[in-house]
Every structure is written in structure tokens, then in C-alpha cells.
Sequence to fold (317 residues):
Amino acid sequence: MTEPRPPLTLHLAAPRGFCAGVDRAIKIVELALEKWGAPVYVRHEIVHNRYVVDGLRARGAVFVEELDECPADRPVIFSAHGVPRAVPADAAAREMIYVDATCPLVSKVHIEAARHNENGLQMVMIGHAGHPETIGTMGQLPDGEVLLVETPEDVVRLAPRDPGRLAFITQTTLSVDDTADIVAALKARFPAIVGPHKEDICYATTNRQEAVKAMAPDCDAILVVGAPNSSNSKRLVEVGAKAGCAYAQLVQRAADIDWRALEGIRSVGITAGASAPDVLIEEVVAAFRDRFAVTVNPVVTAEENVEFKVPRVLRTA
Fold:
């Protein structure tokens, strides 16, 4: 006789998973393959998710690190994270067909940085060194015009050209709470610093973090479906731990779940980073159903209906 499965409440965060910018970026690669046939080249992972990247690769997308790895006679797409200004300039100089899949909310930060630069302000960027979005945003302006800070301690060490002529921008996928601490440190040290009209952290990042905060107190464990190089996914793990959940972990797929660590639990929260597709979330839920008598409790903290159009070149035959 089979043993009865232990009861488990699955708190399912909403919103979770794909955001409008990721949706648009993937659609851009799919439409480019339809329009121009394979291969279509993509500079960097279009979004940070191996399952998504492997799926597009199987259809004829070729992922490269730099533009000089692309032949001039095939289309190239720039990832959702954005690229330095030099990259489209190089593509234009080589007379390449290129499509920019930069998320419109990242492009908004680029425009903001350029506007402040034109007004003679030096920029401070709150972001993670080496992240493609940070590299792309800092690459919008000449060297030395953007100073990077990652922590409130970095603010203490800042040596701007003129402390009275500064503005700040942020990476779109940061922790809302951590960023608030850095902004407070910037404003305390540089009272004249100019901030964005509306914060740069995008709606999807904010909404996913709020859903995790809402469910964390009721969860013995939280699993975030996402990639290890996905900034917004890693922030969700941190937010869950900070909000009081004793065990918060990142998993790429159901196969990554550490079942021994979950022995004896009664409630689990599940969410997903903005570049994780529904199929992977469903896979994780199914793995819990195989082992437990599951009751699903949706934790809905916002409704999302944002949609971004693909570039015109892909809307015409």
C-alpha cells in the first residue's frame, strides 16, 4: 500500500515569471528568424535563461559575445539588457542589419543618462559591476562620465568631478530596499544630486519583490525559478530571506530542488524571475504534486497588463 502523501500548501506568487520586456525580446528573435531565416545572430544571451536560449538556438539563433563574431551579411540582435553606444555604431559601419531588443525601460534609463550628460552633470549609477545592463548603460556616455556604486560604502569613496553637479540612475533589476539605502547615502553626502522623475527599478522587478514579501511570512521555504546569472531572480531570493523565510533558494529547473532540505515542511512559496518561462514554473509545481498532497494558494499583489511593441522592421513584410 502506498503511503499517503504529506499535505503541503504551495503559495504561488503573482506576478511571477516573464515580464513585457522579456516577452518582447524573445518575440524579436522569433520574428527575425521568420523574416530572414536562420541563422540570426544574437549578441549575448537574449535574456538570462538557459531554457529560453537553448530553445531559440535550436531554431537557428546563434549566440555570440561580441559583434566581431558575426558575419556582416546576417542580421544581429542586441539583447534585452542593452548595449553600449559603440555596438550599434559598429554594426552601422559594417552595414549590418541589426535589431535592438533592449527593454524599453532600460532604454528610458539610457535617455535619462544622456539628458543629464548634456546638462553637464556627471552620473552615478547604482548597479552591479559586470552585469550586461550596467555595461550597456555606462557605455552610453564617454569614459569617466558614469561612476558606479554597488553599496552605501561605495558612496563614501566616491570622488566626483564636482559634488554639486551630479545625477543618479539605477539598474532596473535591483532590490528596491537595498537601492533605497544607497539613494539615502547619496542624498546625505551630495544634497544637490538629481534623481529620476520616477524610479528606474522597473515595474516587473518591484511587483515580483512585493509578492515575495507578502508570502514570505507564511512560507517554510521559498523557491525562485530563475538563472544564476539573472539579477532580478537573485534579488528575489534575497528579498525572501530578508522578509523572514528561513530557506530561500534559486532553482533553474525542478531537477535542482534539494528535497532533503525540504523534509518536514508544510508550506512553500514559489515565484520566478522575469526571464523564466511558465513551463519551468509548471514543472516545479508538478514535482511538488508528485511528492505532496498540494493545496495551491495564489498570492496576488498586482495585475500586470504592460505590452511593448516589437521594432517596426519586424512588423513589416
In short: The first strand starts at residue 7 and ends at 14. The chain is about 35% helix and 20% strand. The radius of gyration is 21 Å.
